[in-house]
Model the fold of this input.
Amino acid sequence: MATAARNGVPLAIGLRGGFIAALSLCLVLLTDTASGVSDDAIWYQQADSGERQIEFYFFWSRQCPHCLEAHPFVENLPQEFPWLRVHSTEVSASVENARLYMKLAGMLGEDARSVPGFLFCGEMYVGYRSTETTGAMLRERLLACRARLTGDGMAVAPPGTGVALPLLGAIDLRGWSLPLATVTLAFLDAFNPCAFFVLLFLLSLMVHAASRLRMALVGGVFVLCSGLVYFVFMAAWLNAFLVVGELRLVTLIAGVLATAMAAINIKDFFWFKRGVTLSIPERAQPDLFARMRGLVSARNLTAMLAGTVILALAANTYELLCTAGFPMIFTRLLTLTLTPLPTATYYLYLVLYNVVYVLPLTAITAVFVFTLGARKLTVREGRVLKLLSGLMMLGLGILLLVDPGLLNNGLMAIALLAAAIALTALTARLWPDGGTSS
Done:
């Protein structure tokens, strides 16, 4: 069962509708009585043809703009699914209708606090975004319910939602779409040339201290601070998108920004730091280098760790320039899910993203500590990473502009990553000297 309580109703409409709904529900509490009707009879009925018919309850309010957006979709359902009977019920002007909504929701252990509400087959969904997102999800759940009634297991998942894996059999990927997209985007974002540049240079200097413990502490604190700064940055994006809701204009702006950042990163492969660039500014590098050298010479462990924190905060301020598009795209994706997520779930996804984001940095630190070796990121390697992130970001930006609903498909994120890797490898091969001169 999935529920959602966030509707994004404008304040003036929300207050008026909320007052009416609150009044109706108060009356419901005074008048509601137990019903002897069985649960099965509420969700299913026998049609004249003898076929079992699914009862679909659509609760809405005239003051709710999302309800009005859902009407065309709901009205078309009986034509699409002849075995479905729709009960369209307006709740703000009728105590009886509000009582019915509250009773059905209560049977499922839910509260009838928001509209539009969709109840069928013992499931309840609240909120509506579009036909392509919420509508698609409701269709899938109706098909799954129909399959259970008829015993036709093949009807549960529409084509393209599952994949056969050795030993595991058929796996339905719909429930894994957002986690897959999270891991995929975070994995690509993790190969941040700016972060690699700073960490590799820092650890190369720490080699001269000939202390694995110091190197591990400095590298570990740097990676931890990088993850925390990124988390705060992404939380700011997330809250901004939650405030503005699912306005199409905001998604278009995010798509335009992502596409522009992608073009700059792709440009940097061929013409590095010519014109506009998303790299650590030349004027900031001397200060960063001076801070790093200061850490090597620090004798006091406390001072060294404090200096590492300050360095990490300063470096990450510039590092955000390199791949700021990915956090923006991902947090926008979180706010465009089929149904709104609980607040805690949003932040759990941010935690997952950032855990994946710091894995390559953690691996680099571990290798340096184990080998006490020195390694720097070459200009060529940095530009190839920029090309890879730019191509991936370009694909995501185009999807935000053309069809944001496709971002809910985890396979799409994997396909974009595979295409970006293939194009990067091909481009780097065809232009082996691309970006070697500045």
